[in-house]
Amino acid sequence: MKRVFGIETEYGITVAGKEQVDVVQESIEIVRSYTEHGASMKWDYELEDPHRDARGFRAAELLQDTDEAAYFEIDQQRPLSFEEIKSDLVLSNGARFYNDHAHPEYSTPECTTLREIVAQDKAGERVLWECARRRNMRMNGPCEVRLYKNNTDFVGHSFGCHDNYLMERAVPWDRIVTGVAPFLVTRQIYAGAGKMGLECENGQPQPGIFQISQRADFFSVLISIDTMNRRPIVNTRDEPHADTSKYRRFHCIIGDANMSEVATALKIGTTSLVLELIEKGCAPIIELANAVEATKSISRDPSYDWIVELADGRKISAIDIQRLYLAAAQKHCDRLQEDAPWILKEWEAVLNDLQIDPMRCADRLDWVAKKYLLSTFREEEKLDWSDPWLQSIDLEYHNIDPVAGLHYETVRACASRRFLTEEEIKNAIFQPPSSTRAFFRGRSVAKFNRAIASIQWDEVVFNTTKGPRTIPLTAAFCDVALEELNDRVQAANVVEDLF
């Protein structure tokens, strides 16, 4: 399973004890709290182009451009520059950390193993929590900022958790869509984070219904380049941040933000294997009658039968669709890759347990753990499912405070399985993965931060005694040249040693 992947997570903010909250300002303050470590804002936006479409053209405008313009008008009134509002940082572990509209966003460094990606994702939680702690120390009065790794404010607004995978550019785009859509629609049965209530962007939320996905309510088309309006199941943004002649980045926006380490590993691992199937031309041929409606119906089905309709009128369960992908992966995927045996074993085990009784998965799946907590609390307190108390319990499951968060309470009670050790997470806070270009980026920030003129995923520009010098980082994997570059930055004493 030789693949580069990463996760982008936007975090929700509340401020207890404060009636009027400027969430954009709070998001800026959260990110800027990290600058006490010496990080500085040098991100190069000129190399970004979210309008480039994988279908072979550049979109003239996106639906979310209107929202961007609205934010711009509001931000014009702030005594801050664009750079200060974005507060865009690159951290010593190679991650990107910045203010994305009204949410602090943490983008993991590029990883190639499940242990790396889960550790870096969890490191993001620790970074955000520490920044919130510092922010709270500076606040006046009895106010407290709280951060949540979830995807909804429960009144019709959603924020994302995007998983990203580098793929071979030679694979036809239509084959990717056909191969991946049924998988993504049904992946929520083990990757969903669970949610109280139904939502839509243009209607009144409906309380009292538990569903398995936080994001399912917010998708309305099968394919699109947009990410904030008319969200698609398959996103067409073509921004590989690598050699564009060889690679594309599969930008998956339909996933929930997971608290469970095992759920995160399953989500990334199974998707990586499915993309391998698509690259090899071995993915199952499945056509859903209506992928958008199937996404919603699976999330909202209280029976957990998860029956959907195929284009030819036949009915099939989400579990059986996943079993078709699992069988193809068992037959065609490279089992010699480091993580493949674990993924295939756990994928089969979770499908078996979900079919027998979903509650058997409370030790590893977020939505099941949450449903158990809510059901137990409701019975003890004799509450109706529409009681707002349950929605607050839902939210607190995602509280990233390791003391107050309900997910962390299940970990302490040994009710949730671990995938990592604490030592692995602590190391990931400051140490970049050694298997990708993130190592060079992270070590450059740690050792030569003041000499960096600008930085992006695929290049770093340094100020040297001979003027600006650029080091391109377009290699996707740690080849000989990149290994030499990583060795050089590790050994360098001054920035000139890099050249």
Strand percent estimate: 15-25%
Helix count?
A: 15
- Report, as a whole number of angstroms, the end-to-end distance: 33 Å
CATH level-1 class of the largest domain: Alpha Beta
The shape is: globular
Please describe the biggest sheet, giving its number of strands, its sense, and whether it closes into a barrel: 6 strands, antiparallel
What fold name stands as the CATH topology of the largest domain?
A: Creatine Kinase, Chain A, domain 2
Give the helix level as a range of percent.
25-40%
Number of DSSP-assigned strands: 19
Secondary-structure class? alpha+beta
* Level-2 CATH architecture of the largest domain: 2-Layer Sandwich
Strand order of the largest sheet: 5-6-7-1-9-14
Low-confidence stretches: none
Give the secondary structure arrangement, pairings included.
Blueprint: E1 5-10, E2 12-16, H1 23-32, E3 52-53, E4 57-58, H2 65-75, H3 82-86, E5 89-90, E6 96-100, E7 103-107, H4 114-138, E8 144-148, E9 161-168, H5 173-191, E10 195-198, E11 206-211, E12 219-224, E13 231-235, E14 247-252, H6 261-280, H7 291-300, E15 307-309, E16 315-317, H8 318-332, H9 340-356, H10 366-381, H11 388-397, H12 406-412, H13 422-430, H14 438-448, E17 452-456, E18 459-464, E19 467-472, H15 480-491
Parallel strand pairs: 12-13
Antiparallel strand pairs: 1-7, 1-9, 2-8, 3-4, 5-6, 6-7, 9-14, 10-11, 15-16, 17-18, 18-19
Features:
single chain, 499 residues, alpha+beta, Creatine Kinase, Chain A, domain 2, 3-stranded antiparallel sheet, 19 strands
